[in-house]
Structures are given as structure tokens and as C-alpha cells.
Amino acid sequence: MKKIFLAFILIAGFCSTSVKAQGQIFSIQYSMGFGTGNTNEFISAPSFRGLTFEYKKFITPNHAVGFETTYNFFYERKDYATYTDDNQSLSGVQFRYLHSVPLLASYDYFLKPNEKYNPYVGIGIGCNLVDQRLDMGIYSITNDAAQFAFRPEIGVLIKANRNLDLVVAGKYFVSTESDGMDGQSYFALNLGFAF
Amino acid sequence: MLALLTSFTLLTSCYPDGAEYADETDIVYTVYDKQADFGSKGTYAMPDKIVKITGSYQDNGDIEYINDIYAGPILANIDANMQAYGWTKVDEASNPDVVVLPAAWSTTYLVYWYDYWCWWDPYYCGGWWYPYPVTSSYSAGTLLLNMVDPKSNDPNGTRKGIWLGTINGLLSGSYSQNRVNNAVNQAFKQSPYLNTK
Asked: Which of A28, A47, A88 to mutate to test the interface with B (most CBs of B within 10 A)?
């Protein structure tokens, strides 16, 4: 956590020295993920290892299009337990990993452009690259998939200075079943900077 | 760009490593024949050695056994678990209901393992026909508990395996009897259908 906080201070320093480009914003955000549905079933622990990069191009002061990529890494150690399937039982400690990288095209609507607090709502559509791994004993089961992804979002830009905005956003990533992997979903709380 | 590099460096620096201790890699797998009627059985026989699988008996490989210092407590623990479930140990000549055949290995790859039962009695050659993992890392150890029904009548002329317990884990620097005992106990604990009481 200390490392992530340190990273934020460094990033803020870099960002505040840059010049905010006219009509477009870049954003770097720390992302915390909270699994729902199948994601939560596989790993119930939240992810505190996440990062989002966004680019938004304003068509008008209220409308912006762009793209986004997020990385969230879920991990959980499941205590020693017995798993039974029909006439077979398997006991052991499990280590579960899930990497999620949504790559999305985005559209956002900004409610109060040019004001200190500028709330917005947005959607994103694209794909979610998911890498799932389950380690048990010396054995490992892996599963990769590229899934169709959809992401609604609400957030707010808070003007910090002429070059820098703070970003607070809630995103809900949903991706559909594919490549033999169940659909994944998680809520992400993002905190970051836009410049 | 510097901001991106900093972010990725810090993210990857806190990547979890998984198992920290050898005993966290211990797994216990059991499977039983759904047609087996354990409740109608009550006696078992078991060799007084644990065969160490290193090659093929039928290919004139040397027979090796686990050192009695280690095998003795394991066999005693298997006996204790069987008897706690109501089984009575008898001599192999006394027509037991089942035969428990323990084996162990720590080799990289395993082929022809099943013919090892021939060392004790050719009657048990090829006594198992369930598929199960046969590969393991050189640094991992496996203990196999194979319960065979000597009265079964398989069309292939082999005896039928009715229960299999497999214990597998990473070998650590020092042997832990307690670790093995816990795993053997777990194999029986997760197989309550073996209880004949």
C-alpha cells in the first residue's frame, strides 16, 4: 500500500509539470477491484493491484470519446479444504490468480464542463483479456480467454490546477463467456489524475 | 512514460508468490469405485513393506522398498485408520475382502507402475484400471494407497481396484513423519464410505 501511495505522489509530480493538451485528457488511475458473480466465486478477495490508463478526446465540452485499458490482478490463498466431485475428492491449499485487462473504446458525457467538480457518466465497449490460474500442490490449471466486454462508469473530475485534475470513478466491468471460461465481472473503484 | 514505468514497477513488485512452505503443496486425492459395496466387506490384508517405484518389475527392474524406519509408521497409521473404520486385518492367505497395497515414488516420470504388485503376489499384477496422474516432478514425493478387491472378476483377468488414495507433495529438506501421517489421515477422513461400522 505504501508503494502504491508513493507511486501516486510520483505520478502527480510528473503530471503537474506537464501541459494539459487542449480538448483532450490523459489519465492514470489506481484501480481497486471487487469481484462479483463468477469472478467473486473464483476469488472473493478484492484486488488492490490495479491500474487504469485513459485517453479522452472532447468532441464538444460535454462529449468525449476515447479508449481505456485497465489491469486488475486478483489473488487469493484458499485455506486447506476438500473439494468433492462425484466419487472423487481432492484436498489441499489452493492459490488462485486472475489477471484482467479490459481494452475498451469509450464514450463519456460530462455534466458540468469548466467547473471545479465535473461529474460524468460513460460507457465502454471492447474486449477483456483474462488469464485465470489455479495452483494446487505441484499442479497448475490455467485458462486464458478474450471476452466481449462492456463497462458502465460514473465519475467526477476535480480541478486541482490549470494542468491537473483529480479523478474519482466507479466502473463496472462485465465480460461474456468465451473460450471455455465463464463470464467475468467486477466493480472497480478508481482514484487518479488527469492531465 | 516515466509515470507508466514507475506504476508498472511498483505493481509487479508486490506480486504474490503462492506457496511458501513445502507442506502447503500437500494434496490428497481419493477416488472409489461406485459399484463397490464397502459395507459388505470387513477384512483386509496389507504387505509389511512399502514398495518404492523406480522402474518396471516386469522389465526385470530391481525391487526397492521404502526404508522400514519410514515405512513402519506409515503402515501402522494405515492400519489404525482402517481399524478405526471397522476393518479387521487378516493374513493374505485368509481370503481377505480387500487388499491394501501401498507404494511410493519420487521419480520424474512413472511407467508400468502397476506391475509392481507382482512382487508380492502375481495374482495382483495389473490390479488397477483407474486413470490417475502418473507424472510428478523429481522433487515431489507420492504415496499411493491402492485398495484392491481380490474377489473381483474382471474380464481382463486382473483384480479390480475399488479405492485409491494418492498423497503428493513437494519434498522438503527434512522428512516429516507428521506431515505424512496427516495426509494419510486425510485420505481416510475424506473417504467416509470406507467406514464399515
From this structure: A88
**Domain regions of chain B by residue span:** 22-192
Burial group, residue B105, by CB count within 10 angstroms (0-12, 13-18, 19+): buried
What ipTM describes this predicted complex? 0.76
Average the pLDDT over A41-60 and give the result.
Answer: 95
* Contact predicate B116/B73, CB 8 Å: no
Q: How close B115 gets to chain A, by Cα (Å)?
A: 24
Is the domain A25-194 a CATH 2.40.160.20 member? Answer: yes
**Contact check, Cβ <8 Å, A49/B18:** no
Residue A51 bridge partners (DSSP): A30, A71
Residues of B with CB under 8 A from a CB of A: 2-4, 6-8, 10-11, 13-16, 18-19, 24-34, 133, 136-137, 140, 168-170, 186, 190-191
Query: Which of A11, A86, A90 is opposite residue B3, by nearest beta carbon?
Result: A11
Q: What is the pLDDT of residues A150-181, one digit of tens each?
A: 999 999 999 998 889 999 999 999 999 998 89
Task: Give me the residue spans of the domains in chain A.
Answer: 25-194
pLDDT at A136: 87
Residue B141: what pLDDT? 82
Per CATH, domain B22-192 is 3.30.160.670: yes
Of A95, A124, A97, the residue nearest A35 (C-alpha): A97
User: For residue B8, what is the nearest residue in chain A, using CA coordinates?
Assistant: A51
B81-91 tens-digit pLDDT? 999 999 999 99
Angle between helices B177-189 and B68-84 (to 10 degrees): 30
